[in-house]
Specification:
Chain lengths: 311, 168
């Protein structure tokens, strides 16, 4: 009887109300302790594991929707896909030629004792999940620590810089896009040589802040990474300058098309003279034969696991 | 709430988790209708649907669970979407009870949904402020909200039964 009476319309349920308020207060407490960076760091492994689960779910959904898209794709899209497949076959031959030439060049440099340009390695991966919520603009790629990807890697696609890796899981990595509010990248104009900070803006893409000589910036000027932070290679294309009522912003090159395949590039890893002396010259071995051999073996491993790497 | 309704609500929560995970699928951009960048807020769908079941700790726990999943998938501070969903549920319940007693001319369900959503967005903003999120409220969030409300009337029976007998 008492239980029945408790469930009547309009009857007060103090325990349930108190429970609801209690859960709300507990959640607020949980949010408050996350204002500490130590707590946020402690949550990173759990988030990395969850990235893996999200990527698996998205990958299976991706397969389903890929078939669905093909069903509804128009004639032009199908022709474009065939054209691109042919291009891939041609490029495969060029890749083999490039590998052979790289190997030969390294041998020549060794014979001449020549200090060549350090070759930046990297991993090609595919975007398998995306996060465009109110808190962050991010993507998940299907290459992680097992493929040699670590936090801080620059991410580019065929058009330009996409963002950087902020967390790596076992086989996944989370990429913070340039459009995210927390993204800060040092950039420079190709024509004006003006240096500035590129700050993510969810509304317009990204804004140019703290420009040294804003008067020299030209409308439509190409902007690239300046490499001042030591994390990004200098000269990666970022976008084109455009002025609006709030100041200069960049039309990001990566937004030309949807993101699909991306390349994850390691930081330049400059060696200081002190480090070079301490290592007896071994620190300068980015394009040694040993490295190339290990890169090729990584390529083979990546191709077998779905993500491809090229020298 | 009967065990049958509890089980039904649980499956509603599972559906919400699936909707949330599907929202992270890049291939959706390629579909022939404009879904790009806009996706229903799964935890809001569950919370809004739970309002008509009345006050229930079970419903609140499921909302918090779905909220946690959405926090992980959406890279939000842990607890932000859960708190926001709970705000939707609590405010919607209060509005529903309050307006039912006031006048029969007021469309109670619609008003409670609207109030729930407004308080939910405010809750999300508060959560962002507390845990360090920035610029949480923007046009894309409102686009998602409109999409959620529009979809609510079609998918709500999948989350919770439309049966006056279960209202407590």
């Amino acid at each position: 009887m008492a239980r029945h009476a408790r469930h009547q319309v309009g009857a007060p349920r103090f325990a349930a109300r108190a429970g609801l308020v209690g859960i709300g207060i507990a959640l607020l407490g949980l949010l408050m302790i996350q204002s500490s960076s130590d707590v946020r760091r402690g949550l990173e492994p759990a988030r990395a594991r969850m990235d893996g689960i999200t990527s698996k779910l998205s990958a299976s959904a991706n397969k389903h929707f890929a078939g669905y898209t093909w069903l509804f794709a128009n004639k032009a899209s199908k022709e474009r896909i065939r054209e691109l497949e042919n291009q891939v076959q041609v490029l495969e031959r060029w890749r083999e030629a490039s590998r052979t030439m790289s190997q030969r060049m390294i041998e020549y440099e060794d014979m001449l004792d020549l200090m060549g340009e350090p070759q930046i390695g990297g991993v090609t991966a595919r975007i398998i999940a995306e996060t465009n919520g109110p808190f962050t603009h991010a993507r998940i790629a299907n290459a992680g620590a097992v493929h040699g990807v670590f936090d801080g890697f620059a991410v580019v696609n065929e058009h330009g810089l996409v963002g950087r890796v902020v967390r790596t899981g076992h086989r996944t990595s989370r990429i913070l896009l340039l459009t995210d509010y927390n993204s800060r990248i040092p950039v420079m104009g190709r024509t004006s040589l003006d240096r500035a900070l590129l700050v993510g803006d969810k509304k317009v893409g990204a804004r140019i802040l703290h420009a040294e000589t804003p008067d020299l910036i030209v409308e439509g000027e190409e902007w690239v990474t300046s490499g001042d932070d030591g994390l990004f290679e200098r000269g990666l294309r970022v976008g084109f300058a455009h002025r609006d009522k709030d100041g200069w912003r960049l039309d990001l090159a990566m937004q030309t098309e949807g993101l699909d395949f991306v390349r994850l590039l390691p930081p330049p890893n400059f060696v200081t003279p002190e480090e070079l002396m301490a290592s007896d010259g071994k620190a300068l071995t980015p394009n040694s034969v040993d490295n190339l051999v290990s890169q090729n073996s990584e390529d083979i491993a990546l191709q077998s696991s779905g993500a491809g790497g090229t020298p | 709430m009967t065990p049958t309704v509890r089980v039904r609500l649980f499956f509603g929560a599972v559906l919400a988790v699936i909707i949330c995970s599907l929202g992270a699928t890049p291939a959706l951009q390629l579909l022939p209708f404009p879904l790009t960048g806009v996706w229903p807020i799964a935890v809001f769908l569950l919370a809004l649907s739970s309002i008509r079941l009345g006050l229930s700790i079970w419903a609140a726990v499921l909302i918090v669970f779905v909220g946690f999943v959405q926090d992980f998938v959406g890279e939000a501070p842990i607890g932000a979407w859960a708190f926001s969903g709970l705000c939707v549920y609590g405010a919607g319940l209060m509005a529903r009870n309050g307006f039912q007693a006031m006048a029969s001319s007021i469309p109670v369900e619609f008003v409670s949904l609207l109030i729930g959503c407004v308080v939910g967005v405010l809750g999300l903003s508060i959560a962002g402020d507390i845990a360090g999120g920035a610029n949480v409220i923007d046009t894309s969030l409102f686009a998602n909200l409109v999409w959620t409300l529009g979809l609510y009337y079609f998918v709500s029976p999948l989350f919770a039964p439309y049966d006056d007998k279960v209202i407590v």
